[in-house]
Amino acid sequence: MKGDNSESSFCIRKLTKTEIPEAHSLAWKVFCEYESPDYSAEGTESFRKTLHDPVYLSGLDYYGTFDGSKLVALCTIRTEKRHICFMFVDGSYHRRGLGSCLIRHVLNEYKGEAVTLNSSPYGLPFYKAVGFVATDEEKTVDGIRFTPMKYIPKSEGEKMPLVKISVRDSWTSERIKELNKVVHEGLVSALKIEDRDFFHRVYKFSKEDFVFPDFKSENFMIIELHLFPDRTDEQKEAVYREICQNVGKLGVAPADIFIQIIEQPDINWGIGGKARK
Asked: What is the pLDDT, as a whole number, of residue 154?
């Protein structure tokens, strides 16, 4: 699955308007096979009506997983409320990771935002496995049984970057304190981390131990940012821009600021005795 799964024959993308009827057919087929048995006749009829209710269907974004040209999984989200309305995978494609890849793709479209849904009894284990938590007890409305759930993004604390700054030993302690402050402010602005996520190490080197070209000034520095692998290119560009502007307030020229972002997979981050997930 491009960008999400090792099975390259699968592709996730937004559906076109002409593909929406096919999506509704898939939803009805999977619902009848796997979810309807948990519902009363009233609940099944309520769901059928939903698939033909233009008011309910308006404002939905449709995402699908395709096996070639065949739609095999569907996820819709009400963009204004960040609420997932439909999530279905063709039964012949179950237990292949398609559902997980698709819903994570949609969650990634709303990175950093809370997303809600109402889970059927059948879907409850799946949603728990991908990170949703129940926010209330099971309810029944118009025969539809559901458990309200919410996906809360990884805490801002888990987004903290580890910062390493290398400078010449001509930098005084007071100036380094200011340097740490402005670099951190740039990260808060660009990555939306919490102010408390302050993990900095500053290394001061002699001229002999920190060698760089003569056309660089005594202010030259290397800022290494160790990040989790989930930042966008736009966020990285913002990091370069914000830090450069902020450090410039200390009289450092942009040409003397070298920033390197180092990303490691989750398994390479041990937090609290466990790998980040």
From this structure: 58
d(CA 258, CA 45): 62
Question: In the structure encoding, which two tokens stand for residue 67, read together?
Answer: 């096996």
pLDDT digits (tens, 9 = 90+) for 231-255: 788 889 999 999 999 999 999 999 9
Q: How far is 118 from 147, CA to CA, in rounded Å?
A: 5
**b/e per residue 107-130 (b: at least 16 CB within 10 A):** beeeeeeebbbbbbebbbebbeee
Cα of 174 vs its chain's centroid, Å: 37
The residues, ordered by sequence, that sit 6+ positions from 16 with a Cβ below 8 Å of its Cβ are: none
Q: What is the pLDDT of residue 1?
A: 58
Of 99, 102, 20, 12, give the one whose Cα is nearest residue 57.
20
- Residues (pLDDT < 50) of the chain are 3-7, 156-157
**Contact of 176 with 167, CB cutoff 8 Å:** yes
Predicted model pTM: 0.57
**Cβ contacts of 52 within 8 Å, gap of 6 or more:** none
